Each structure stands twice: as structure tokens, then as C-alpha cells.
Amino acid sequence: MPHAAIATLSERDARRIARHAPAADAARFLHPAQQALLHRRGWLTMLAPRSAGGTELPLPQVVRLEEAVAAVDGSMGWVLTLCAGAGWFAGFLEPELAQAIIGTPRVCLGGSGAATGFAEEEGDGYRITGSWDYASGAPMATHFTLNARLQRDGQPLLDAQGQPRIRAFLVPAALVQLVPSWNSLGMRASASHSYRIDAEWLAKEHGFTIDATTATADGPLYRYPFYSLAYVTLAANVAGMAGHFMQLAEECMRHRRHARAGLPLLEVPEVAAMLQGKKDTCAAARARFYAVLDDSWATVAGGAVLDDNTMQAVQAASLALVAAARSAVDGAYPYCGLYAAREDSSINRVWRDFHTASQHALLLP
């Protein structure tokens, strides 16, 4: 039986995550204790349908948990977010297949959204070939999601607008070859490696379409728009890392003196005002973000469909939160001293993680 997901981060779990974060960064993958916690708390299936064995938590709870985990360790928050997000796709699979996948021991879904492969129609399925990048949590994945361009007899299949038809697939890890490629400055423990598939056949049931009209699970999670879900979960991660950085930055400032004023930095009025201003701006953006998220979720949970204006508001609130986080981190960093430039310091790891995660294409201003 799957564990019921715990929707809050306890102090004990936060300490456990933090204790192993430096070792995970050095090893370039989550520490076994961190991986075990993800499974034990049921977090990797918290967006999967209850009918498939997931816990299908309300989206606002999920987002707050992801922010809290990212505020302790950016890599773990990112793996949690991307892998739990891939578990959401189970709500668009045939129910029996979804149950089989979510019921896999220590199930973890990873993958990529880029359509960098091909799916050739063959019998009652597809033969898939291609390579995909940035599969966060790849070493622990039991299944991979991907997008592929459909073909028949080697020719691309086109939609009504003459564009290549693209279909999403969920593939067992046994058909996938990992390609170690994640050599980033930060988010090292996310192990967001590449993967490839060489002409492997897959039954058609493993293909799916991400659209509320094609959902096979009934809950409001599967009627919440995909891109809106992506924006809020990614933005929450960035906000969590920024909050962690600002805590560590304030501690650095507490122990550093201003060369000209001869005072501790936090006693220099201009520095104190700068720090408080960054905090206030982030707090306001965060409050707005959660107000928009909670309202949008209430709309969908009430049975309505998000209109274009609401989806735009979700995106705008997410990007505003990311912009505030960027401004805070970049504004505070110069006051932190050379300690913040040491690769073995906690604040440096958080800084590296923040600036790597915030490069995600959806988070461009």
C-alpha cells in the first residue's frame, strides 16, 4: 500500500534534509537518506490520482510543500517538484496502466518536455528513438516521460495546421539509457542527466495527451492547466531558494563590518534599508502569488474552467515572484563577503542552486 503523503514539512524532516545536503552536492545526487524520505512521505506520488494509488493532494498544499523543501535544499526541492509533477501525468493514462505504474515499488517518474525524439507507428504501438535532456532525478527514476514526433513509414504525421504531431509517452526505465551529462554549477544533486531510447517498441497505451478533456482521473488537479501548474511549482522552488539565501546572507552581514563606516553591516542604515526593502518586496510578491494560486485553485475545484485572464494572472504572479527573488539574491550577494564565494559554504551552494534553477526557460522575464 502506498504511504499517504504528508503535505507539510516537519522540523525533523527539514533537519534531516539539511544535514545531508552538502554530501549530496558533493556526490552530485540526492543522499540515500533524502531519497528514502521522498518515498517514505509519499511526496513523489502526491500529484498522482488516488484511483491509481497516489494521494492527489490539493495543488496549493503541494506548492507550499515544494517551496518549503526547496528552502532547505534546492536540489531536493527541484527533484521533488519535477518528479512529482511527472506523476501528475498518471491522471491522463488508462486507469489500469496508471495503477500499475504508480504501484511500482519506490516509483519515481522523471523526464523531459522537449520533443527531441520520434515515435514510428508500428502495429499496436510505437517504436521510439531519440534523446532528451535535463531529466531531474534521473538515477532514481523507474519511468521516464517524453514528447516525440509521430511518424508513419518514416514520414512525419502532420496536424490540421501542417505542423508535426507530437505525443507524450511514459516509458519504463528498462527501455531507457542514461547519458551522464549534468555538469552544472549548481543544482548538482538534482542529477538532471540526459537519456536516450534506441528503437524500443512501446504499446500505444503508454501514450497520452495532456488536456483536461482527455483526463482519465476525475479530480480538479487534472483540470488545472498544465502550464499554470508548471509556473506555480517552478516559481515556488525559486522563492524557497531565495528565502534560504536571504537568511544566510543576513547572517553573513551580521558578522561583517563596513570598511568605511567601521560598523557591522546591519548597523549601516543604507544596508539595513536595502535588506529590509528586498525582504518586503519578496514578501509582497509571495503574498500575491499565493492569493492568485489559491483563487485559481478554488475556481477549478468548484468545477469551473480557468479563463485566459486567470491563466495570465497565474503566470504574471509567478514571474513577479521570480523577479523579486532574483533582485533580492543579486542585491544582497555583494554584502556577504568572500565567505559566500567559497564553494564549500552553505550560502555559496544556495547561490549556485538559485542561479541554476532560475535559468529554466519558463522563468524568463
TrEMBL record:
- Per UniProt, which keywords does this protein have? Oxidoreductase
For whether the record's keyword set contains Oxidoreductase, the answer is yes
Q: Does the keyword Oxidoreductase apply?
A: yes
Report what the protein is called. Acyl-CoA dehydrogenase
Q: Which GO terms describe its molecular function?
A: flavin adenine dinucleotide binding; oxidoreductase activity, acting on the CH-CH group of donors
Pfam families reported in the protein's UniProt record: Acyl-CoA_dh_2 (PF08028)
Q: Which residues form the Acyl-CoA dehydrogenase C-terminal domain?
A: 233-363
